[in-house]
Design goal:
The protein is α/β, with parallel strands linked by helices and about 475 residues long. The protein has 20 helices and 16 strands. The strands form four sheets. Strands 4-5-15-10-11-14 form a six-stranded mixed beta sheet, sandwiched between helices. A five-stranded parallel beta sheet has the order 9-6-7-8-16, with helices on both faces.
């Protein structure tokens, strides 16, 4: 399998190189030349297969080398060995034809663990094989940073620098990052929004001398390996409900678009997906883009679902690439317009193609709280505020099309957002004892202003790859 940049001006790479590169040198995102096809027979054969084995089967065709394929089963087994639920991603029914896919049973209680635990092992094996060091720099709106830190902490060949928006993540999310004492972990509290952190990250990747000097690697959802690892639970959950003989829809709480893009990939591999439902909070760029055809970020509004407080959804570029017929020029033009004028118009044919597969709804703060209360009242099930946006969007879909089951992705454990839960239902959920004890340690973080040069200098002074 070979990969090309959405913007068409970077070298084509094999999977292992894409894994280390993250962002393409031309500023684009890597995408495979084609999506592997999974036959109905092979989809049906996933029934009853342990999650780690299903992951190895489904991810294998995206790899490039026999050696990588041979190592994959051991990597998936190790990645999911520490999850608290034997099913890894269990499916729970909460209403007629409405299901919740629990993706929070990993070490940091968020869906990011399902990709990051595997990504850490895959990346470490490539670095060992090539005798290299890497400097991982990531931006997080809350959960990616903790998942990356947990996956890479203590690894001798990797230094990790995570930027998060100062004062804009929950206390639990912050402490999951800042109480980790390993010497290779560095947390940066950026005085700005997640979009500011993500913009700095992208500029650092475009800075070729800096990128080479520190061995820069990325683990945000711009890294293709993250998306392809998330594709697996779409297959396993759909098979639980009768795929390939039965269509299902998915409602996905979405900020950076990577998680719902994984569902799109699964569909284009052959999974019978009826609709992909994008659920946003008040930061509704995706809902507005699908409704109006204009992609136009606005100011970020702080909400009770902070991991979705994003206005520049990076993975939307991969979808737009496909929707334009893989027109590199159209992608370069669109994102040049975004940089220069702060918006772009989606070409009409591309917009029609996207609307043919996706719905998008914005769920406001009051509706999110109401959904947490309703689900508790009717099903005695506690939703975190991110998951509540997905469940609310799923109910809207079922009101129009009640015959097709909808799976809402539960992206975080409710105990990560106890204030929001207590406001909604008067109950304050508690973290698992093992995690709660770990978060009691002293915090380590550095507050930096929203300045690319300051961040770059901070990283270069501490990255061991820069001194090798």
């Amino acid at each position: 399998m070979r990969y090309l940049s959405t913007r068409g001006e970077a070298a084509q790479l094999a999977f292992d190189d894409v894994l280390l590169a993250g962002l393409a040198t031309d500023g684009g995102l890597y995408a495979p030349f084609a999506y592997p096809h999974v036959s109905p027979k092979d989809i049906a054969a996933l029934a009853g297969v342990p999650y780690a084995q299903a992951a190895a089967r489904l991810i294998g065709p995206f790899l490039s080398e026999d050696a990588s394929c041979a190592a994959l089963p051991a990597q998936t087994e190790a990645a999911y060995a520490s999850f608290r639920h034997r099913a890894i991603a269990p499916l729970i029914q909460i209403a007629d034809n409405l299901f919740v896919l629990e993706l929070f049973h990993g070490p940091t209680l968020a869906f990011k663990d399902l990709a990051m635990q595997l990504l850490g092992r895959m990346m470490n094996d490539v670095l060992e094989k090539r005798n290299l060091r890497a400097t991982i720099v990531g931006a997080t709106s809350g959960d990616t940073g903790a998942a990356a830190i947990e996956a890479f902490r203590g690894l001798p060949r990797v230094d990790v620098f995570i930027l998060y928006p100062h004062g804009r993540v929950s206390d639990v999310q912050r402490r999951q990052m800042t109480t980790v004492a390993d010497d290779n972990i560095h947390t940066i509290a950026l005085q700005g929004t997640f979009d500011d952190a993500q913009n700095i990250l992208k500029r650092l990747f475009r800075n070729a001398p800096f990128r080479e000097r520190v061995g820069l690697a990325g683990v945000n959802s711009i890294n293709w390996a993250r998306v392809v690892a998330q594709m697996v639970y779409y297959f396993t959950s759909a098979v639980s409900l009768g795929a390939p003989h039965r269509h299902v829809s998915f409602a996905v709480p979405t900020g950076n678009f990577g998680d719902v893009l994984a569902g799109y990939i699964a569909k284009h591999m052959g999974l019978p997906v009826e609709r992909l439902i994008v659920a946003t909070n008040a930061n509704d760029i995706l809902a507005r883009a699908l409704a109006t055809g204009r992609y136009e970020p606005r100011g970020v509004m702080p909400t009770q679902s902070p991991s979705m407080d994003i206005q520049v959804s990076s993975n939307f570029e991969r979808l737009l690439f496909d929707a334009t017929g893989r027109d590199h020029g159209a992608i370069r033009g669109a994102f040049a317009s975004l940089d220069q004028s702060g918006a772009f118009d989606i070409p009409p044919a591309a917009l029609a193609a996207i609307r043919g597969e996706f719905d998008a709804l914005s769920i406001g703060e009051a509706d999110t709280t109401d959904e947490i209360a309703r689900t508790w009242r009717e099903a005695q099930y506690v939703l975190d505020p991110h998951t509540a946006t997905g469940v609310s969007a799923a109910r809207a879909r079922l009101a129009r099309e009640p015959a097709t089951p909808v799976i809402a992705l539960a992206t975080a454990h409710p105990a990560k957002f106890p204030d929001a839960i207590e406001r909604a239902i008067g109950y304050r959920p508690h973290l698992p004892d093992s995690l709660a004890a770990r978060l009691e340690g002293p915090e380590r973080f550095t507050i930096l202003e929203n300045d690319e040069a300051r961040v770059a200098n901070f990283i270069a002074e501490r990255a061991r790859a820069a001194k090798a």
